[in-house]
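Bench notes, afternoon.
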Amino acid sequence: MKRTFLSLKTLAFAAIGSLFLASCSTDDDNGTTVITDPDDTTRWITVAAARMGDNPGDGNGGTLIYALSSQDAKDPTVSIEPFENGFIVPSNRTARLQASEDGSTIFNISYAGDTGGNYTKYEVLGGQNFEQTGSAISIAPYVGSAPRWIKLFDGDKTGAAVYVSTENQFNDNNTPDDETDDFYERTEATMGIVTLDLVNSQILEFQEHSVPLSAEEEAKGYYISRIDMPTLNAAGDKLYIGAGLSKVDPETGETDGDGEILASKSIVLDYPSLTNPEVITSGVGIGNTNGYRSINAFEYNGAVYQANQGDPQGSHILKIGANNEYDDSYVFSLDAALGVEDAYILAWRPAANGKAVLAYRHAGSAEGVAGAQGYFALVDLEAKTAQKISGIPYDPDFYLFQYQGFAVDGTDIYVTQAPVGKNGNIYVVDTETGEVTKGAELVNTTGSHFIGAF
């Protein structure tokens, strides 16, 4: 008989009292066992699953979550079916999830649709049981119904959401054929940022700013077109926001996708006032720093480490020092470290020891049903080394572009591995030793995939 959530081994230990589970209750609807003892010290691991919408791997059919104990997450005899028994997270498309540092709370801001921009939080009770706590609040009036948001690493107190709007500016007195002046002048990029009290569900601060590039860059048609992943510095007085750049052809005002890719940039703001924006530029990396679905920058040992994407020389991990400028003496090329070409960092997460698990693809990745094949690597920020994790199986349909979450428990990092539409497992990486533990089975469904652990 298939066991869901708690394995027979765990139940046996519970019966003799060698674990911390003093009392349990059974949900008759789905056969899961829910831990209810408030003294239990087990960490919850919440698995996130993205259902197919119209195409395999698009994740547009909604998001489901399912929680199990860290012990059971490490147990390959445990099998869970989030698509069958999971909790449906409110969101029109793939939900944007965050977890508390101890795994006991899930934070969500719905993405798009009628509920887009709604913030809710849930207490994790095990299995499909998530109980909404506190009041809901909408941040849509500040940053729209499809906000880019992140939970700051300040003890689960604050979230930050951002947007950028752009407007091409033209000289009304001239046309593209005029030789006396340029038709296109520049693109005005206006960023908005709101901070959210995650504890009391209230808006803390909102600011809007113009975020221009240099006059030379703007004259060539460049502008900031996307921002994401606010990250708090070690001193707690600056916020770094990753930036993506686009370009128009100044001669026509039309989008120009063939232009030179500029050096990586970030926006720096005073915190918590969200004032005095400044754009800083890397001398090492080229391309964007806004990431996609997963946190793209982390504070470690007094500095902030940030991934870049779309770099013609392959993704780098960049360093922003305590002086709030890029530290160009720190050069960490993923191509060089892994011995591949055109490495692209899809998502990553370090443990407190400065060693990280990183999801990536590269020029040799197979083309699967939903996109390029993904892999995991173990990264050391101090040694600037990276090694493909060989203890995790790979498949051409293992798709990590939408990957969101890594659950960190001490030096262990939990990941989900399952090709699109196929079963897989949780894997636990000991970042100190590199040892990999195969954990609970993840039962998949047609065209769907798993987007992380929290």
